[in-house]
Design brief:
GO terms for molecular function: nucleotide binding. The protein contains nine helices and 15 strands. With about 325 residues, it is of the alpha/beta class. It has two domains: about 5-120 and about 285-300, 3-Layer(aba) Sandwich (Rossmann fold); about 120-280 and about 310-329, Dihydrodipicolinate Reductase, domain 2 (2-Layer Sandwich).
Length: about 325
Amino acid sequence: MGAALRAGVIGLGAMGRHHVRVLREIDGVDVVAVADPGGDPYRVAGPLEVLRDVESLVAAGIDMAVVAVPTKFHEPVALTLAAAGVHTLVEKPIAVDTAAGERLAAAFTDAGLIGAVGHIERFNPAIQEVRRRIADGQLGEVYQISTRRQGPFPARIADVGVIKDLATHDIDLTAWVTQSSYESVAAQTAFRSGREHEDMVLVTGRLAGGINANHTVNWLSPMKERVTIVAGERGTLIADTSTADVTFFENGTVQTEWDSMANFRGVTEGDVIRYAIGKREPLRAEAEAFRDAVLGLEDRTVSMTEGLATIRVAEAIERSAVTQETVRL
């Protein structure tokens, strides 16, 4: 590896502080500038001056940047970086709405730059293992994918509701794990905590190829849950992304010779296996993928085009909740 890439991070809050840490940990990258108009609450700058804005970050002479500011500021900050020729990873969701996401994706494509979105669950070892096993044919045809993502309200202040803040994780990982796009969604939301945005959502959806999907997402549960269940013709894979465990429930292969029973086309319980997998920190894996893409090596990042597809689905979910109708994409 030649000279280290010069990296900058803007936004030093709940996620930004971790981006600074992992960029400092990986080979071939030097964090040379950090910025946040609100200062450095977690004291991650170290010897670096805390710059005030994205223009100061650009002036530091950076090759790559991570944008971890509130969602409503993603577009102006990232557009400034694109205009300056800086490869950029924007925290998810890509932008506050589809129109802003389209402008961002176009800006980075037109400039020939790496534009990535921080859909961190894609780098969770459990989700990567499930994706690999599905690609290897372990489940055969995929029938259904269900996710549950619930827990207490996060201390970080969100300027979006649970759909754009949390459900976007599930939308992205569902499309990636199944290698399929959403065709329709129907949703129910609730506003239980006195904030202007929804804090619970239930989604049912249909993906291309006839795969059923459903998502239970909220930040009103004292029980923290991060589960993805993929059911197919040969069994079911369950990923727990909080513990990075993967379990396989195999459809039984014990056949009966009794004719009337043999005609029943159902499933039986087979072996259950919990796989021991390497548990690398997802954020570090994401940072390494971003670095490799900037270096022109393999691009394993979540592209802005994919991030845009996710925000489109999120907005369709919001529309369905308001109209109480199924929304086709």
